[in-house]
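Worked Example 4.2. Read the sequence first, then its structure tokens.
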Amino acid sequence: MKKLTATILAIMISGAAVSAQKPSSYVNPMIGTGGMGHTFPGACVPFGGVQLSPDTGNIPHNIDGVYQKETYKYCAGYQYTDSTIVGFSHTHLSGTGHSDLGDILLMPGTGDIQLTPGTADDPDSGYRSRFRHETETARPGYYGVTLDDSKVKVGLTATPRAGIHRYTFPKDEKAHIVLDLGHGIYNYDGKGLWSTLRVENDTLVTGYRITNGWARTNYTFFAMTFSSPIQDYGYQDRDRVLYKGFWRRFKQERNFPEIAGRDVAAYFNFDTSENQELIVKVAISAVSTEGALKNLRAEAAGKSFDQIACEAEDMWNKELSMFEIEGTEDQKSMFYTSLYHTMINPSVYMDVDGNYRGLDHNIHKADDFVNYTVFSLWDTYRAEHPLMNLIQPERSADMVMSMIRHQQQSVHRMLPIWSHMANENWCMSGYHAVSVLSDAIVKGVHEPTDETFEAMVSTSTVPYYAGLGEYMELGYVPMDKVSTAASTTLEYAYDDWTIYSAALKAGRTDIADEYLKRSNNYKNIYDKEIGFARPRYSDGSFKQDFDVLQTHGEGFIEGNSWNFSFHVPFDVDGLMELMGGDKAFI
């Protein structure tokens, strides 16, 4: 791609001089690892389906149904203030205020084998290990650390669909790896529905797990290879299954080639007396273990750890080099780290052969596009997706097509609201996928067809979705039906305007006329007496005892009337009139 001068960021950084160093050398992946939704994605490639990262905490989301408030710290799995590492899992969300994933956790060790993680207060009670930040290295496509308890040196890198581990064990120690299929982020009793493990031969292990989390039914298949043969191995299902059928005739705990259960942990022993280095390659798939094997062979077979790490760095440099900037070292680090964060999600969600798990949990084939997942649209429709239209138009076109296929596979016939891993989790408000589609149409990134407008119109007319039926009937969302009625009305009106804008661009005047009228619904919740947006009830009355500064219980989500009353970017003149004219607006 031709280099893009960063004029759109001239407020922050001016000029267009080429940096003396590679852009990735300015990236600090560990900026923003303290919680509030920030993440350290560890080893990943741009928009990759694998984010191989250390997890430092495993506080469950709830215990016996009671929410554990400390769990929110671990929505990304990693906390910089922690001093222990539980292990290294292959999937993570970035920047979200809620969480899931943490699939397929590995932890190398020496000495006695333990198949439970232990606690931060007592790491010796499990396979967890202490570590120090002085031994950590983090750069795009690579993460490294030394585990203090076992003295194992860990290196991690990734391809789009595989995580690559390099473990260097100390001399004269008994080396092993723990595979925990029960571990997860925002874990709780019952999140793990089922998992299986097959030892195919002495260097290949396959399996899968199904979880019930934010993604209600999430399938993660994997294929894992070792650079040295397994000496022996064993398992434990930590959740007792009352009925085992005739599997009970086998002693499955040690050197039996397959196991299945709700909370399976396994260990694999290796002889590292001659070669202290062990390379583990783990590819994942949402389709099948066969798909995971195809991904592994296509992206990692025959390549050394260093070769894959260099390829990952090259991928990042290719993407980050589209901007040429000048500024201080801090400014460059801030800029490139921020740009790096925009390229973690959405992420690829299909195998190398184009197969992927759809929202209907059937297997589909993406013949003419790349299928993506992790659409956090309430958070990303304003800036992330418009940025992608400017700097990643081909990827953006694929993301749009992924959303359209989502809509076609949805029993509700709706575009994604907040979707990941072939699941809709219904988080936040509005139907902002229409904004993403419309922006792509207006920018010339997506050529609309009948299925494009079918997807937008169908999404915006589902009567049982969050007051949408009342919105179409009354012209606003009533507060006695939806607690965030005022902000939801404003979001629907904006989304309707984007449908109008796209339809106008495409010459679909029938749709354009209808949705221009609908976009004016924002006016129905403005109280001219106070000059602010104010929620109304089904009988037409405004909410009484209304506080424009209060963020709770006043009809708005994650904001107040002062914030949301200005959310009419498509009709500023109309908004100014409602607020009492130019002087009052200013």
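Now turn to a second chain, presented in exactly the same format:
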Amino acid sequence: MHIRRVGPGVGLACALLLSPLTQAQWQVDLVEPEEAFYRPGDPYTFALPADLPAEVLQRLSLELDDIDVTAFVRREGEHAIFTPPQALAHGTHRLRLVESLPDGNIVEHALWQVEVRQSQALREAGLQGHADLAGTQRPDDKNVGSHLSSHQRQGSMSLDGRIADDDWQLRTRAGVIHNSRIDQMPNDRRTDLTHGLVEAGKGAVMLRAGDHAIPATSLVMRDFARRGVSGNARMDVLRSELTAFAMRTETIDGFRHGFGAGDSGNRSDGIVLTTQPLTTRPERLQVSALYLNAEGNPLGSSTAGHPQSIRNDAAALAVDSLTFDQTLRLRGEYARSDTDFDGTGTLVGDVYDSAYSLLAHYSHPQRAIRGGAFGWNVGVEHSEVGPWFYSLANPALPSDKRLDRIFSGFTWGGLSLNAQAARETDNVDDDPRIPRLRTDYLTLGGNYTPFRHAAETGVGRLFNGPSFSFIAQRMAQAHSDVPVAFGGHAIDQDTDVVYAGARFSPGNWSWDIAHTRTWFDDAAGLQADYINDLSEFGVDLLLANRLSLSPRIQYNRLDDRDHRVVTRTATVMLGVSASLIPGRLDASLNYALNRERADDDSMDNDSYSVDALLNWTLVQPRENRPGLSLFASGSYFDVRDTSGSNMDLYQIFAGLRIGWPVAY
């Protein structure tokens, strides 16, 4: 084991002691704690043999959950004491005593399983939270609506509580906001709920009620985060997992609608089953099935039977496989939907349609080439969504689309590149009455962070810590198979974008530069052709750890090629943050100037804004002790347009803020 010094006066920072003779000649024991369990911050004491030679200390190490913690062990007489550098999480941890032999082998001499608990009755019990309340007065203003109150209170509170023991747990999380101006609150309440969730689990079963997401990604359901109730059960013997849910179809906030599952006319019910049927190499086949029965409107403002209410049944079956040492992924999914778009009981009947997707993705194992880690991947994807396919749990999925895509990427040392090419078309049913829109995408992007020795002096020091990035994109859209009777305007347009940027970090400051050029050409003449150039330069500077400056300049040139008009826009921004009295008095200021000019004098606008804040901390917030601070802030905005008219406004605020972190 290694001998290390922790600091002056501490002595040898040794771990546990073993002998080079045989393990039977000595034994290291872990001293039992007084309460038969350990608390998160407790030290661990080991009884050492008294007659071990000092040279054996250099071969021994102590590991906590496979992490070497030898440096945190100290010697006190016949004992070695390990003090964790930070409080350990509740639950079971592993302490391991190992010896590094001269021949390079590692021998395990002892292994202890220790349990960290909150108390004898509960493995874990705790409550964390934070409350903030600010009262603001506006003593002066100009051109601000007179109907607005000059006094305002704003606050927020978050709570996270948890109790657990053995194989069960109960956790609750909630957030509340307050605003004395009811017009700034979403539900005409001065105090309302931002989020709330209760989770209860025992063994492989977990129940949830409140705001949460259903863990499913498919054509039928994606990023489905709503308020409702769900249950999840793992069946390890069958390598399966089952989730059932009843969620509010629309996104809701505040205390409205309780847990969200009480209205059958605005609810999404469903079940998800995932299983790996192969006993050996289960990753080679995973089957997922999903069924959804939903009614409502994801945008809200719908009631059961109302024309804005949608009734929707959808189902999906997906097969996923990892083969060839998990380098090749093959995935296929098929989905069906049955939708009544104008509500139940109407003259329009249900509409049936389908969607499917296929994916093949190969990732080559990483290997070292000339000192850099090299890896690459390539994939192809094909998907088709019918014109009437729809799911209330994935309303963002575009319908009537066929997509073919190929993508690839590789990394080598500090260089990474990604590229893709895709074609998307609509009118997948080949309806002769409507045209087909074809969209082609090409994207190439990369980052390069070279590994090189930093320059110490001279101009070269400005370019230390370099990082480069670039993106090239092309999107071409055109109508094809346009019928004679089509009364709309045919589309034929191209958009090309090229971006290049660099960032350098010479020391306690950094600077960056970037340029973006966009070309837009419309062969159909529906929109004006243009070229747009945007250049940016910025600096982030930290002085004496107390003052930070962030100046930034942007220059934009828009060349309207059809009307032969050039518009130039210059923007200057400056951010300043200062710690005037560390831990007590802080200040910040943000300034922005914007000037916009057109060659034909159709545009001649100037505007600038200033925001400033001064915060004086009277009492620093600490755990279970509130903090108190006073603040003053102000904002000013002025604009002059082409007509020569001016409009300026300002506001000045002063207030008091209380922050209270709690932990039990």
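Notes for the reader: The CA atoms of residues 453 and 464 lie 8 Å apart. The mean pLDDT is 89.
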